[in-house]
């Protein structure tokens, strides 16, 4: 067999991909390269290689500690990419962000990387499959080597490539924690002073850079008290990724990186975490307990480390003991922690915010809202909660029913209000010169109503329903125009949050809105931008819903054009990530104050400055009080 045939046998996957990077100003760009996944090597070329013996531009190693994360659909400088990130590849644990031009190609690459990583150790607790908490045959891939403080300790089984090498084996531990997975997750993510109440390795920590809603760079200084006598203190600079699965499992992944804002410190030796992380899985449907898995593959940077592998493993085992400390922390301190320690903030970043568990807030969940009235009762009822009077400029009054009452003070649970426009940042008149955004001063449309519905099916085109405010205005020949944003949240019960915005200004006097209404879906998806914000709520919700986005490039949006309205039906279930975020938000709604605004993005100078078209705030929504939609 010639060399070319051997090359072909080793090519697992190959094709054109785009390397996604950021320049010094933070703007992303792409570079087209031909990638070949050959055995355990990932090689990049500027053109299609005739032979793999040709020197590549770059080479990286895929190993048992590598993992691949799908990052979804994104537009970069006018090109749409389906992005995935390779974490922990090569010896220094770097990550590489790659993009394919279609979802099928991205899925093939993701599957190929997963197969290669699994082949190296077939390890159900490695980072590529650490999210699979149901993987059963641990003994086939890990060797149990001890039990310490009630934790079973496992050591990674050597693969064929590492049998004759001196390597730092990954180790893992498991424990059952008497706490809800989301609470365990919040505590593990905290870099504040509360971490030292259970993490004996931790001295202080900070967030160096927030990359996106699920990724950041963190720095940890480790406490020297637990290290052997004479050993210099260690620190870690890590890229951290987190996510929530549909079944309520939380995943936190780490690996060491380099960052110009955090160079090595003289008083510390920087250890290298090749890969590590936690998986927090619910045990039962009530989510009162969690199985926590903790894995470490770390090089402590000991002098002549090949002579001190046993000492290195001893340090790693000691660090895994934090899991036992966390278990005891939940047994003895968690009740006082939840009532007294509201702040899970990092000392240097506004990342960790209040946990909403004070008694006064918990009582809000049991606020009784009046049951819906029929039309006759509404006419004679003193309850104004379910009835609104809209006053036009000419004095005309329009009555309509809606499912959420308005409460501008935000004190009434299960209500809506209008937030201050200045809460949202939009593109200013000089944006294309200095890329600066400015606080919005006003909205072009008035927030009229919010519907909070549930159904056994997806509810589309709410504006067209008989009796809706939109149809009542249309029946009277009123000139007002409506924009409805309808969030469709899937599940065994489908929930809808529909916000109704209205303007008295003719469309011809709002040229960008007119262009949007009369344009095609491609144009609409390139301009329709949502600006989410969470004023009050758990940290994970604030992180999950914190970035402005062109929603049509991430989710399926069905635009419906009526005589006096346009409705955007946003299918949250069209993205796995968004579905997980929505599931998280639903579980926290009763302790959440959240805002949403929308703009039609300005892409040319003559469209600047941008205008905020509409904004609404939701106050402590109660899932059990969502109104059933008409059959």
Automatic annotation (TrEMBL):
<dbReference type="InterPro" id="IPR045096">
    <property type="entry name" value="EDR2-like"/>
</dbReference>
<dbReference type="Pfam" id="PF00169">
    <property type="entry name" value="PH"/>
</dbReference>
<feature type="domain" description="PH">
    <location>
        <begin position="10"/>
        <end position="118"/>
    </location>
</feature>
<dbReference type="InterPro" id="IPR001849">
    <property type="entry name" value="PH_domain"/>
</dbReference>
<protein>
    <recommendedName>
        <fullName>START domain-containing protein</fullName>
    </recommendedName>
</protein>
<feature type="domain" description="START">
    <location>
        <begin position="142"/>
        <end position="299"/>
    </location>
</feature>
<dbReference type="Pfam" id="PF01852">
    <property type="entry name" value="START"/>
</dbReference>
<dbReference type="InterPro" id="IPR002913">
    <property type="entry name" value="START_lipid-bd_dom"/>
</dbReference>
<keyword id="KW-0256">Endoplasmic reticulum</keyword>
<dbReference type="GO" id="GO:0005783">
    <property type="term" value="C:endoplasmic reticulum"/>
</dbReference>
<dbReference type="InterPro" id="IPR009769">
    <property type="entry name" value="EDR2_C"/>
</dbReference>
<dbReference type="InterPro" id="IPR011993">
    <property type="entry name" value="PH-like_dom_sf"/>
</dbReference>
<dbReference type="InterPro" id="IPR023393">
    <property type="entry name" value="START-like_dom_sf"/>
</dbReference>
<dbReference type="Pfam" id="PF07059">
    <property type="entry name" value="EDR2_C"/>
</dbReference>
<dbReference type="GO" id="GO:0008289">
    <property type="term" value="F:lipid binding"/>
</dbReference>
């Amino acid at each position: 067999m010639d060399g070319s045939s051997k090359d072909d046998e080793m090519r697992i996957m190959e094709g054109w991909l785009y390397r996604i990077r950021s320049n010094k100003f933070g703007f992303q760009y792409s570079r087209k390269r031909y990638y070949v996944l050959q055995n355990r090597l990932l090689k990049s070329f500027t053109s299609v290689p005739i032979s793999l013996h040709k020197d590549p531009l770059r080479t990286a190693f895929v190993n048992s500690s590598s993992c691949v994360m799908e990052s979804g659909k994104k537009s970069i400088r006018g090109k749409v990419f389906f992005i995935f990130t390779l974490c922990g590849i090569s010896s220094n644990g770097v990550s590489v962000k790659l993009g394919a031009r279609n979802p099928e190609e991205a899925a093939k690459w993701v599957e190929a990387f997963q197969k290669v990583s699994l082949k190296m150790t077939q390890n159900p607790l490695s980072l590529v499959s650490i999210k699979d908490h149901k993987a059963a045959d641990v003994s086939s891939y890990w060797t149990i080597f001890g039990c310490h403080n009630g934790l079973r300790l496992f050591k990674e089984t050597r693969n064929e490539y590492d049998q004759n090498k001196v390597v730092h084996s990954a180790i893992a531990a498991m424990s059952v924690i008497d706490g809800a997975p989301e609470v365990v997750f919040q505590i593990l993510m905290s870099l504040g002073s509360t971490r030292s109440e259970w993490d004996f390795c931790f001295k202080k920590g900070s967030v160096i850079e927030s990359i996106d809603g699920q990724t950041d760079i963190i720095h940890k200084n480790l406490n020297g008290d637990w290290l052997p006598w004479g050993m210099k203190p260690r620190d870690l600079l890590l890229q951290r990724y987190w996510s929530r699965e549909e079944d309520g499992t939380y995943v936190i992944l780490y690996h060491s990186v380099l960052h110009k804002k955090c160079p090595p410190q003289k008083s510390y030796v920087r250890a290298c975490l090749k890969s590590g992380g936690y998986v927090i899985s619910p045990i039962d449907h009530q989510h009162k307990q969690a199985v926590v898995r903790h894995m470490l593959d770390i090089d402590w940077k000991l002098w002549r480390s090949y002579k001190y592998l046993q000492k290195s493993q001893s340090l790693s085992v000691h660090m895994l003991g934090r899991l036992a400390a966390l278990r005891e922390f939940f047994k003895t301190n968690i009740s006082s922690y939840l009532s007294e320690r509201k702040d899970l903030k990092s000392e240097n970043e506004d990342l960790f915010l209040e946990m909403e568990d004070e008694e006064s807030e918990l009582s809000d969940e049991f606020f009784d809202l009046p049951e819906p009235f029929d039309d006759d009762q509404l006419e004679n009822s003193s309850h104004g909660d379910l009835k609104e009077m809209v006053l036009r400029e000419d004095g005309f009054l329009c009555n309509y029913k809606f499912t959420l009452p308005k409460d501008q003070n935000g004190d009434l649970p299960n209500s809506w209000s209008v937030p201050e426009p200045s809460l949202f940042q939009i593109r200013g008149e000089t944006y294309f010169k200095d890329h600066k955004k400015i606080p919005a001063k006003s909205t072009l449309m008035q927030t009229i109503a919010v519907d909070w519905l549930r159904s056994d099916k997806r509810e589309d085109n709410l504006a067209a329903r008989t009796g809706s405010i939109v149809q009542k205005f249309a029946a009277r020949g009123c000139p007002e125009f409506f924009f409805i944003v309808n969030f469709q949240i899937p599940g065994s019960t489908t929930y809808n949050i529909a916000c109704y915005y209205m303007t008295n200004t003719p469309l011809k006097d709002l040229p960008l809105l007119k262009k949007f209404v009369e344009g095609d879906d491609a144009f609409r998806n390139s301009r329709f931008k949502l600006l989410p914000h969470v004023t009050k709520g758990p940290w994970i919700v604030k992180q999950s819903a914190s970035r402005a986005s062109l929603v049509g490039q991430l989710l399926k949006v069905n635009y419906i054009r009526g005589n006096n309205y346009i409705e955007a039906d946003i299918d949250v279930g069209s993205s796995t990530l968004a579905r997980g975020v929505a599931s998280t938000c639903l579980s926290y709604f009763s302790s959440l104050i959240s805002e949403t605004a929308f703009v039609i993005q300005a892409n040319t100078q003559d469209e600047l400055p941008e205008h905020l078209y509409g904004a609404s705030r939701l106050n402590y929504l109660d899932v059990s009080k969502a109104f059933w939609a008409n059959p």
